[in-house]
Design brief:
Chain B: Pfam families: Ald_Xan_dh_C, MoCoBD_1, MoCoBD_2. Chain B: It comes from Thalassovita mangrovi. Chain B: This is Molybdopterin-dependent oxidoreductase. The complex is a heterotrimer of chains A (260), B (791) and C (161). In chain A, strand 10 and strand 11 (192-198) form a beta hairpin. In chain A, 30% of the residues lie in helices and 23% in strands. In chain A, the strands form three sheets. A five-stranded antiparallel beta sheet of chain A has the order 4-5-8-6-7. In chain A, helix 3 (74-80) runs antiparallel to helix 4. Chain A has helices at 12-18, 33-38, 74-80, 85-91, 97-100, 105-111, 118-125, 138-141, 209-217, 242-259, and strands at 5-7, 24-27, 46-49, 59-62, 65-69, 128-131, 135-137, 156-162, 166-173, 180-189, 192-198, 206-207. Chain A is globular. The longest helix of chain A is centred in the last third of the chain and has 18 residues, at 242-259. Chain B is globular, with a radius of gyration of 27 Å. In chain B, strand 24 and strand 25 form a beta hairpin. Chain B starts with 15 loop residues before the first helix and ends with a helix. The longest helix of chain B is centred in the last third of the chain and has 27 residues, at 552-578. Chain B contains 19 helices and 30 strands. Helix content of chain B is 28%, strand content 23%. Chain C is α+β, with helices and mostly antiparallel strands. Chain C contains five helices and five strands; from the N terminus they run E-E-H-E-E-E-H-H-H-H. Chain C has helices spanning 23-30, 87-94, 104-117, 123-129, 141-150; strands spanning 2-8, 11-17, 49-52, 55-58, 71-73. In chain C, helix 2 (87-94) packs across helix 5. The longest helix of chain C is centred in the last third of the chain and has 14 residues, at 104-117. The chains are: A alpha+beta (260), B alpha+beta (791), C alpha+beta (161). Chains in contact: A-B, A-C, B-C. At the B-C interface, helix 1, helix 17 and strand 30 of B face helix 2, helix 3, helix 4 and helix 5 of C.
Chain lengths: 260, 791, 161
């Protein structure tokens, strides 16, 4: 990879200041960024590591809200987000154990890989993304593949999840990468049901609103029977056609409801 | 009681100590003082004309020693092909030049264009990016049939077409086969592909070239299965370096599976460049680079027709295959779809008439060559798929249709209509063992249980034959091999009785350091710890052909046996002298020479000492010392066989396959170390499962590799495979090698793909989805698509 | 170049690194600890797994400077001071859980991390935990059995009786 300067600040303020320099990227767990730098697809002049900032780490519960620091690893979320079992299970299924010991929720969300797991939980729960500058509702955060509402130099500090009555994530793995070939996150709250789909769309994570309506009226797998997920705009690659992914969306939604 | 030492025992592997403690010595672990590093600039287009290469900016960069292009290699040869196939019409195959660095054209993504030697790997890579290459991209040919169409772009402008050869076997049988198929009571036809694979040993390839001005000697450290073959090919055909000035070392090698047999451009490059820049030069492939520079495997497209009479006897078989060679001929590429494939088409059956046609085709893809099984998996897959389909069409049990057509135990030795003679086998026994292992009789109850859970259960069987221990040199020479295929061993007895065996075989995971001493220990009756194996260094071992084709114990082990026999015969003469007895009366057991019918004996160690301190020694009749070499050239291939069973559950909603059990009943002849044999089967079966449901080196129509990393090329992981049932109790020893062994390295990868595919097709049929075939890999989406197609 | 210090296998070490120097490179090239292997460039094969502050990580997907001050354990530090194999290493030998040996260091380090978290894993738990460690030789069968044995659970003997 190309060479770069490495900096590891101890506070959010220092990190934000360091990120003002040109060609500077934040580095969280690095489990996606480092491989892409090896391929020379990314060439920052400086990396600012966020993993030395204690304020960005940890899982806490306050009333009905679970808050996760942005630099909290997947392994920690899997072990400590017991108040939100569906989220803990999702975190425990990302990558592999060694990846989960490095990868972080903030890094995953800022990257917004169209096949990543976390975006579906954030969108499917209606979570709030907290940055050093503001709070962003999940519905406003994801902005297409590898794109988010984050401004240059803005970093995620935490994610706040309203804990749903019931929730479940069903991941159907792409056999090589073990990312989601299609993943469906279903959450039932007092306000209704949200269904978020990852891995399937060329536009990244999205909500399946027809299913949400049907499930808000009747939270059973059968409620989805009469629906068909559209194949329009879904990904076509070695691992599946748009039609296949559309079929998976429906199957996984039913399974998530059954398991929630 | 299992044996605790010698042949048939399972001692722990001695090589494990270094591998388990991080003390292995793999090629990338070697660093030579003053070494420089090379980075290859590789083509990112599949086909194009190189107009110009401007390396001036790269050469000006600090730390760059030299940039090489094809011009630097004008005085040396191209990479040789080690096998010439003669076509149906008696003509030699078309054989293009394979330059070290691309000459005028690039022919596949990954074709090396230039090479930068620099102080560090990163500087070399930075500089390679600064090279400006002007390429006019040309239309690529990827699909084999399109490559043969009139007017198709030619991969090699100096050849008449993209057809390497059109091979017919056995050509004299063609009309009789056609006639038999025309008149048969039933003909089952199947069209299928054998998917292109990447071997992916976990250790990527590495090569280090070192040159000594003081002695004019070249040393190449390389990740090879056969260092002597590399020395011969590179020294004699590429660089013109005589053997005594060229040493090739293959130290610990992290898996091979065929792809480390071949002589690659990078090896010749570092050897050549080390002298030019007068520094050691090291190349370490990244995994991404391996995907576009290691020879790939398989990639056949086949139509097979099986004709049966009214009593379900196989009467004729006809196959028509297109085999992808890629852009150049890799070392043994032409032999794989021909002599390693057509000769196995009889399988385990008495089919009297067989005709095999193979068209080998050049395309703008990475060269294709041998990968674990090499030709035999392709033969077995199509045959065992078509037999299964025939059973379904005829409404008979697939196991019974096979049994009915098996060569019977009393028919051995059996001459097939495809030129080989099976020495021994007992296919009924392996089939029966397998049927018991899988509890075939109670399958229906298990299927009903799955159905109750909404899942489709199926069971699949394949019975394979393979030809191992390649092979008689005079025969392979007639078939086009440009090398001999013997093996060598020197048994060097030391003065106090310990032994070093220098072997031309090479272990890259097979455990030779443990198994070879078991044979010597058994023969002499000494402890295995008294025997060490030396391999992987042309300066130490006699000329040998290396390890591939499940040949190590069958050919290399036999060479060792022969050399040890010579040693023992000489030692008996010495013992006779020491005991003042007749040589004919000397017996050797448990490390003691004794005189038959007396209580006189002398220990192995004392005889060895006498050989090296010959004070009381028959010097007038016998030279001092105790060291013998043998070259063993087998008189036939060996023919392992076996029955493989796979039981699966298919999720009809997602197409996902869950392998519930996998059982293998093999006949490997005599077994030296059961633990290691079982490990070989486990690994082979996992690779076969990988081919059948996960792995695919897929190209798009422009010749871009779509699965160029582990992100898209699905390697089998621990949770993809079950624990395996293995059995090798059926043993029909090989009749023509001294150990009676057949070889076990490739069997698992040969027998498993058709067993798995047959199981999935069975599950779909039982579930009411009459799908006749799905091409590998049976990914969830392909299985789901197949279900939709018959809904 | 920046000087980085850490503890590796209980020993204080230091070396000059660039920003881009990976932990795996630091171990292999700076320290000569070549037991940690690199088998891919997409963080999947797991041949490079080491422990950093007690957690299994892929050393090819972590910069050396990120490990500054950390306690790092590699395959070279697993055997006893007298060279005797530890329980996991011994089980890999006893149950033939390795062939070419290239993936083995990562397998052993991952197995150690698993047994720390889950001292008596089931076969399915072992297989799932090894998702990030690819072996091309063994078909995993004997690796799974070795880890079962290392956890003190009954495993049938390796070779046919």
């Amino acid at each position: 990879m190309y060479n770069f300067d490495f900096e590891q600040p101890a506070s959010v303020e220092a990190a934000v200041a360091a990120l003002q320099a040109e060609d500077t990227l934040p580095l969280s767990g690095g489990q996606t960024l480092i491989p892409s730098m090896k391929q020379r697809l990314n060439a920052p002049a400086k990396l600012v590591s966020l993993t030395g900032i204690d304020a960005l780490k940890g899982v806490s519960v306050d009333g009905g809200t679970l808050t996760i620091g942005a630099a909290t690893t997947h392994a920690t979320v899997a072990a400590e987000a017991t108040a939100y079992p569906a989220l803990a299970a999702l975190a425990g299924g990302i990558g592999d154990p060694a990846v989960r010991n490095r990868g972080t929720i903030g890094g995953s969300l800022a990257n917004n890989d169209p096949s990543a797991c976390y975006p579906s939980a954030v969108l499917g729960t209606g979570a709030t993304v907290v940055t050093n500058a503001r709070e962003i509702a999940a519905d406003d955060f994801f902005d297409g593949v590898f794109t988010t509402a984050l401004e240059e130099g803005e970093i995620i500090t935490a994610v706040k999840f309203p804990i749903p009555e019931k929730a479940n994530y069903q991941k159907f793995e792409q056999p090589a990468s073990r990312f989601a070939l299609t993943g469906v996150f279903v959450a039932k709250t007092a306000d209704g049901v949200r269904v978020a789909v990852t891995g399937a769309s060329e536009e990244g994570v999205f909500r399946w609103t027809e299913a949400e309506e049907a499930l808000s009226a009747n939270f059973t797998p059968e409620a989805v029977d009469g629906l068909t997920a559209s194949a329009d705009g879904l990904i076509s690659d070695l691992h599946g056609t748009p039609q296949y992914r559309a079929s998976l969306i429906k199957t996984l939604t039913k399974r998530a409801v059954a398991a929630a | 009681m299992p044996k605790d030492h010698g042949i048939g025992a399972s001692p722990k592997r001695r090589e494990d100590i270094r591998f388990l403690t991080g003390a292995g010595n793999y090629t990338d672990d070697i660093n030579i003082h003053g070494q420089a590093y090379v980075h290859f600039l590789r083509s990112d287009v599949a086909h194009g004309t190189i107009n110009s290469i401007d390396a001036s900016a790269a050469e000006a960069m600090e730390g760059v020693l030299k940039v090489f292009t094809a011009k630097d290699f004008e005085a040396v040869g191209g990479l040789p092909c080690g096998w010439q196939v003669t076509d149906r019409f008696g003509e030699a195959m078309q054989e293009p030049k394979h330059p070290i660095l691309a000459e005028g054209k690039v022919r596949h993504v990954g074709d090396p264009i230039a090479a930068v030697v620099a102080e560090t790997p990163e500087i070399a890579r930075d500089a390679a990016e600064a090279i400006v290459v002007d390429i006019d991209e040309l239309p690529a040919v990827v699909d084999m049939k399109a490559a043969l169409a009139a007017g198709a772009p030619k991969v090699h402008d100096d050849l008449t077409s993209n057809l390497c050869y059109d091979w017919g076997f056995v050509e004299e049988n063609k009309d009789a086969v056609d006639e038999a198929i025309k008149n048969a009571a039933h003909v089952t036809t199947l069209e299928l592909t054998n998917n292109r694979l990447v071997a992916n040993p976990m250790e990527p390839r590495v090569a280090i070239g070192d040159y000594s001005r003081g002695t004019d000697e070249h040393t190449l450290y390389t990740t090879s299965q056969n260092p002597h073959v590399i020395r011969l090919l590179m020294g004699a055909f590429v660089l013109g370096i005589p053997e005594h000035k060229l040493r090739v070392v293959a130290p610990d090698v992290g898996g091979g599976f065929g792809t480390k047999i071949f002589h690659y451009a990078e090896e010749a490059f570092v050897t050549f460049a080390a002298k030019v820049v007068n520094r050691p030069v090291k190349w370490t492939a990244s995994r991404s680079e391996a995907f576009i520079s290691d020879a790939h495997g398989r990639d056949h497209v086949t139509k097979i027709e099986l004709a049966l009479d009214a009593d379900n006897n196989f009467v004729a078989l006809r196959t028509d295959t297109h085999a992808n060679m890629g852009a150049y001929l890799s070392t043994f590429a032409p032999s794989v779809p021909t002599w390693l494939h057509g000769t196995l088409m009889a399988g385990n059956y008495t089919t009297p008439l067989i005709y095999v046609n193979v068209k080998a085709v050049f395309t703008n893809t990475v060269p294709v060559d041998a990968y674990r099984g090499a030709g035999r998996p392709e033969a077995t897959f199509q045959l065992e798929r078509v037999v299964d389909k025939a059973a379904r069409e005829l409404g008979v049990d697939p196991a019974e249709l096979r049994r009915q057509n098996f060569i019977k135990p009393e028919q051995f030795p059996y001459d097939t209509p495809v030129a080989v003679s099976y020495d021994t086998g007992n296919y009924h026994a392996t089939l029966d063992t397998g049927l018991k292992m899988v509890d075939y009789a109670n399958f229906e109850a298990r299927a009903a249980e799955s159905k109750a859970r909404g899942k489709l259960r199926g069971i699949g069987l394949a019975h394979y034959i393979e030809a191992c221990g390649i092979a008689p040199s005079n025969l392979v020479g007639q078939l086009g091999a440009r090398a001999g295929l013997y093996e060598s061993a020197t048994v060097r007895v030391n003065a106090t009785g310990s032994i070093s065996v220098l072997t031309g075989s090479h272990s890259h995971g097979q455990g030779h350091e443990t198994t070879f001493p078991q044979v010597i220990a058994e023969m002499i009756g000494i402890d295995e710890s008294q025997v060490d194996i030396v391999h992987g260094d042309t300066s130490k071992t006699p000329m040998g052909m290396g390890t591939y084709g499940s040949r190590s114990i069958a050919v290399g082990g036999s060479a060792m046996f022969k050399a040890a026999e010579k040693v023992i015969n000489k030692a008996k003469k010495i013992a006779a002298h020491l005991m003042e007895a007749s040589e004919a009366d000397i017996e050797l057991a448990d490390g003691q020479f004794s005189v038959a019918g007396t209580d006189k004996s002398v220990a192995w160690g004392d005889v060895c000492l006498a050989a090296y301190v010959p004070h009381n020694y028959p010097l007038e009749d016998l030279e001092p010392g105790l060291e013998e070499t043998a070259f063993y050239d087998p008189s036939n291939f060996t023919y392992p066989s076996g029955a493989y069973f796979c039981e699966v559950e298919v999720d009809p909603d997602t197409g996902a396959i869950d392998i519930l059990s996998f059982n293998a009943a093999d006949d490997f002849g005599n077994v030296i170390n059961p633990m290691i044999v079982e490990g070989q089967v486990h690994g082979g079966v996992a690779q076969g499962i990988g081919q059948a449901m996960l792995e695919h080196a897929a190209y798009d129509e422009n010749g871009q590799l779509l699965s160029g990393s582990f992100m898209d090329y699905a390697m089998p992981r621990a949770a993809d495979v079950p624990s395996f049932g293995v059995d090798h109790s059926c043993q029909t020893p090989c009749t023509h090698n001294p150990l009676g062994v057949k070889g076990c390295g490739e069997a698992g990868a040969i027998g498993s793909p058709p067993a798995l595919v047959n199981a999935v097709i069975d599950a779909l049929h039982r579930g009411g989805y009459p799908v006749e075939h799905i091409d590998m890999p049976l990914s969830p989406s392909r299985v789901w698509n197949a279900i939709q197609s018959v809904k | 170049m920046t000087e980085v210090k850490m503890t590796v296998n209980g020993r204080e070490v230091s070396g000059d690194v660039e920003g881009r120097t990976l932990l795996s490179t630091f171990l292999r090239e700076n320290l000569g600890l070549t037991g940690t292997h690199v088998g891919c460039d997409t963080s999947q094969c797991g041949a490079c797994v080491v422990h950093v502050n007690g957690k299994a990580v892929k050393s090819c997907t972590m910069f050396a400077q990120e490990a500054a001050g950390a306690d790092v354990a590699t395959i070279e530090g697993q055997a006893g001071a007298d060279g005797s194999l530890n329980t996991i290493q011994q089980a890999f030998q006893d149950y033939h859980g390795l062939q070419c040996g290239f993936c083995t260091p990562g397998m052993v380090m991952s197995a150690a991390a698993l047994l720390k978290e889950n001292p008596k894993p089931t076969e399915a738990e072992i297989r799932n935990y090894l998702e990030g460690n690819i072996c091309r030789c063994t078909g995993y069968h004997n690796i799974v059995r070795a880890i079962m044995a290392a956890s003190g659970q009954d495993v049938p003997a390796v070779a046919a009786e």
